[in-house]
Specification:
The chain is an alpha/beta fold. The protein is built from six helices and eight strands; from the N terminus they run βαβαβββαβαβαβα. β3 and β4 form a beta hairpin. The radius of gyration is 16 Å and the shape is globular. It is an enzyme of class 3 (hydrolase).
Length: 208
């Protein structure tokens, strides 16, 4: 494991509902599991995020009687994409995937648990002002170099990277340990990450 105390592996939303067989499955999302498990051995500090929605959450298309993926609503914080019901609190789909093996992880950050605001980013909810508490935890621990992996590139991973940079952290995305939902939104997010200087590497650069 890394002896550099400023480094942390941030594992985004590796939950049943986001991997094949789940209600909002990311294509080939399960391919990240063995890579993340190996990366976990490289880092002394590991943090996980967990999408944790109440029933009737604002992001669920069923809450509004609308179509998932195709329809949007205007929330108090802007346009909200609507999704199938996913990662409902205490459901099987909200569980971290059983093949994820990071026994030394020192924190799980639950996000999206407020009914009226969604939360893609590990740092801030979608209103861009409500903190998850992660930034304070990292600063208190002196963890300033954050390596991101998990799902999905074009949403929760990407927005975590953008907010991490804005909050002053050194952010790196481990590309082969991330999967995304759709090529168009992945390309758009990649351009946004490049514009703010998010570094991108392959896991081999860390694992040797």
């Amino acid at each position: 494991m890394s002896e550099t105390t400023s480094e942390v592996l941030l594992v985004i939303d590796v939950q049943r509902d986001f991997l094949p067989g789940g209600s909002l499955a990311v294509p080939e999302g399960d391919a990240v599991l063995p890579i993340i498990n190996r990366l976990g051995e490289r880092f002394r500090d590991v943090i996980l995020t967990q999408d944790w929605h109440p029933a009737g959450h604002i992001s669920f298309s069923s809450t509004h009687g609308l179509r998932p993926f195709e329809d949007t609503i205007e929330a108090s914080y802007g346009t909200q994409t609507l999704w199938p019901d996913h990662t409902v609190q205490n459901s099987a789909g909200a569980e971290l995937h059983p093949s994820l093996f990071l026994p030394h992880a020192n924190l799980i950050v639950r996000k999206g648990f407020r009914k009226d605001v969604d939360s893609y980013s590990a740092f801030l909810e979608n209103d861009h002002k409500t903190s998850t508490g992660l930034a304070g935890y990292l600063r208190d621990r002196g963890l300033t170099s954050v390596f991101l992996c998990g799902v999905a590139w074009d949403y929760c991973v990407g927005y975590s990277a953008l907010d991490g940079v804005a909050l002053g952290f050194d952010i790196t995305v481990i590309e082969d340990a991330v999967r995304g939902i759709a090529p168009a939104t992945m390309d758009a997010m990649s351009a946004r990450l490049d514009a703010v200087g998010v570094k991108r590497i392959q896991s081999a650069e860390l694992l040797g």
